[in-house]
Amino acid sequence: MKALLLLLLAQLCSASLVPEREKDPEYWRRQAQETLRNALRLQRLNQNVAKNLILFLGDGMGVSTVTAARILKGQLQHGQGEESLLEMDKFPFVALAKTYNTNAQVPDSAGTATAYLCGVKANEGTLGVSAGVTRDRCNTTKGQEVTSILRWAKDAGKSVGIVTTTRVTHATPSAAYAHSANRDWYSDGEMPPDALEGGCKDIARQLVENIRDIEVILGGGRKYMYPKNVSDVEYPHEEKHRGTRLDRRNLVQAWHEAKPPGKVAEYVWHRRGLLALNLSRVDFLLGESLHPRVSWPQLGALGGPLACPGVLGQLQWPFIPPKEWGYPVRGCWYLPERSCHFLGDAGTSPKDLVTPLGMLQALHEAVELDRAIGVATRLTSTQDTLSVVTADHSHVFTFGGYTPRGNPIFGLAPMQSDVDRKPFTSILYGNGPGYKIVAGERENVSAVDFAHADYQAQSAVPLRQETHGGEDVAVFARGPMAHLLHGVHEQNYIPHAMAYAACIGSNRGHCNAAARPATPFLLPFLGLLFLLC
Question: Where does Mg(2+) bind (predicted)?
Fold first, then answer.
């Protein structure tokens, strides 16, 4: 009798969760027909040349994270959540990317960054090099370097930039400019003697020397730019923030000295310094904060040298080309990155760098990235700007438990375990630090604040740090040639498609005819065949 009452109560509550309009079959039919009409409009392919390229990268933003972030966004707007739309959801073309490294089923961020930036799959832990390079072995690097889409854009005369909420020498951004047998060689202070003797360069040095005219670089990790034991400008009494360089070089000074005469280069390490700049007179900008999430969160549109010499315009994380640029022929390439599930603290040592975010923080990071995507969507034109949103890899993050419609995304499942008779949160991890045993049993989450920002969701396997996941990640595309990103692809295909759209890199045979208007009612498959002929 008790079970029957509970069943009836559950059915009653479930019925009350359904919005009235959704009870009408016509609501769903109208919605489907509108979606169908929008899909039919996509037969008119956008084959314009992409003057501007933007690659949004959510570090660790797997499909389950995207779904949970969508629900969170809706709930933050006082909705139930499931019916909400992320800005990336509105992009008309979606693909899946296979993220494995050449020697790893479940990838790391260095090998994946080499794939989606350089167009070549690589071994885990290596940056900007082919799979012929073995991790940690400097002597395998020579002749195996591969260039990135940032370099291709630079060679085509475009302005380029990188903005990240982790350090600028982290695996994701550094694959755009560096070539390294080990992603952890941030400065020469982290390199073994044999690598130094073999002539390999640390990543921070390559940031300054390899591509000297990157217009905008914003992130963290400034201690790798300064001589060993030099006190930090912001935290002079904290040893962990002191410089790490053994060669005694000041790479910030070297960055300044490498700029052409007559050009203004500004280095900032705090948001106050950035906002104090006369941006109309800045040509090159390097910002390294110990708190990049705070210093470079929403700062205006990165303009200026990304459009015309001598003008920086307004600043914002991430890069948004302002309308007043007029979308010049030379255009730009930009990589904004935001981390999900992992927190890259630019001021910590390499061993302390990657620590799991609380589940609440991780999803809020994804929502913030999506907010930036929305700003970019509003300020750019699909006629000349190709925007791509993707992730480097997934995480072992999931949510389930037969939760009812509108259940708080950080809330409990509506049932207890039928094994240990304890409640559990909808969000769980396959492994990580959330594994807790109390008095010989699984921790009772009803006794803790599972909605706290620092709460780490329960995991099945105890690990100090949660791992990456191995499943495919989504690729969302909007703008010229966005239809080339469809179906299931190897991850290294992404920069090739973007380069083709922008007529940069090696595959430019189609470019003389690429500026023609879109062909009406051409089926995507036939259009693709035509473009590749």
Answer: 59, 170, 172
Residues of the binding site: 59, 170, 172, 392-393, 468
CA pair distance 54, 83, nearest whole angstrom: 27
Residue 192 · residue 202 · CB < 8 Å: no
When pLDDT is cut at 50, 70 and 90, the band that residue 334 belongs to is low
Give the three-state DSSP class for 490: strand
Binding site, annotated residues for Mg(2+): 59, 170, 172
Q: Quick check: 347 pLDDT over 50?
A: no
For residue 265, list its beta bridge partners. 284
Amino acid identity at 432 = G
Q: Is 242 exposed, middle or buried (0-12, 13-18, 19+ CB in 10 A)?
A: middle
CB atoms within 10 A of CB 325: 21
Average pLDDT value for the chain: 83
Active-site positions read 109
Instruction: Assess whether pLDDT exceeds 60 at residue 6.
Output: no
Least confident of 130-144, 178-192, 266-280: 266-280
139-142: Cβ within 8 A, 24+ apart: 139/198, 140/181, 141/179, 141/180, 141/181, 141/200
What residue ranges define each of the domains in the chain, with the CATH number in brackets? 45-293+327-341+355-396+473-512 (3.40.720.10), 412-461 (no CATH)
Model confidence, pTM: 0.86
* CA angle at 532 for the pair 529 and 533, rounded to the nearest 5°: 85
Q: Kindly provide the residue ranges of all beta strands, DSSP E only, lying in 291-402, ordered along the sequence.
A: 332-339, 342-344, 354-356, 385-391, 394-395, 397-399
Higher per-residue pLDDT: 528 or 58: 58
Please report, for the chain, how many H helices and E strands are present, in that order.
Answer: 14, 21
Residues constituting the chain: 533
Q: Which amino acid is at 54?
A: I
Chain position carrying tokens 């070539």: 179
Token digits for 211?
A: 């591509």
Rg of the Cα atoms in the chain: 24
Confidence of residue 300 (pLDDT cuts 50, 70, 90): very low
Q: Point out the annotated binding site for Zn(2+).
A: 59, 392-393, 468
Helical residues (DSSP H) of 156-210, grouped into ranges:
171-174, 193-197, 203-209
358, 342 contact by CB (below 8 A) = no
At residue 108, the pLDDT reads 97
**Dist CA 456 CA 436 (whole Å):** 10
pLDDT at 310: 28
Asked if the model's pLDDT at residue 212 lies above 70, the reply is yes
Unique residue bearing structure tokens 């203004």 = 264
